[in-house]
Amino acid sequence: MKRLITGVQPSGIITLGNYSTIKNVVKLQKDNPDFDFLIFIADLHAITVNQDRTKLRQNIRNLAAMYIACGLDPKKTHLFIQSEVPMHNQLGYVMECIAPIGELERMTQYKDKKVKQVNGINTSLLTYPALMAGDILLYDIDFVPVGDDQKQHLELTRNLAERFNSRFGETFKIPEPLISNVGARIMSLNDPHKKMSKSDPNPKSYISVLDDENIIKNRIRQAVTDSEGVIYYDVEKKPGISNLLNIYSFISGDDINTIVEKYQNATYQQFKEDLAEIVANELIPVQKRYNEILKSDILDQILDEGRDYAIKLAYKKIMKVYHKMGIGRKR
Ligand code: ATP
Ligand code: LTN
Asked: Are 208 and 218 in contact (CB under 8 A)?
């Protein structure tokens, strides 16, 4: 049986961009019914930057509910909260012990975040990829679905695993990245040169999965396009229209060429109206399921099961690691 893991940070509202990655995982599960799926809410990663405790609690729960609402099969998925499986911290620390500082300082995401944080940054922002390596290596993972931004961290994970194996003996499976192009990068609706991002100060730039129907439709109607008046895919010349075509494609499942053909004689307004309808029809049922899940006690049952399953696997692995390194007592 092949095993797959992914972690997601509970950092606020869930945009259409984040939704596309959740949908990707759901599709992966449908296409690979025999894979073992581990999905965790990366709350320990979230606290690398300061968080409001009440909001963080809500975000953790909301994100877990959203995964289920988006169609993950709770019977086949082990969904858990990272901080409830303490072996993540344990293996993360071991990874720090075999990762020279220089390697961590070279991580692009660290360098980017370092310049953005005006009030000084926490040590954990530097050691974050070591914790991420621990997240993955605890579970003998075969595949990690990754976007562009996480490729370098996965490469580091593979290097750390190989280093540990050669220093202490075969312990970790080397995980493979699973790069998927479905649900390509969704761009901002008012500046299609930037990615759609929840931290954008202008709410017109994004759609939140939980926005109400009118807001969803208006955001699409108001999306920036161009003055050519013809619908085709060209990211350089027509970033706005190309972004809307991407959104159309990832939600409908139709490929871009089919959509372009369908709208070859249409106006931007007709195309946007259809897209607004498609996006709203996709998100409204998700919102309904999401609210039901949050109200029921199913979510806690799922999270308990996920935690127990993860702890069982993770405990075995961390004990093996300690044993190989010679820490603790001989057993
Ligand atoms: P921030 O505003 O802090 O940059 P974000 O909304 O961009 O946050 P992240 O927390 O960085 O989201 O990413 C969560 C997941 O969603 C990641 O897997 C990331 O690749 C994916 N993701 C984020 N934005 C987009 C987007 N615009 N299109 C496709 N995927 C996205
Ligand atoms: N760093 C990732 C979240 C993450 C992750 C992981 C993803 C933490 N640990 C392990 C895959 C596997 C992010 O910020 N998107």
From this structure: no
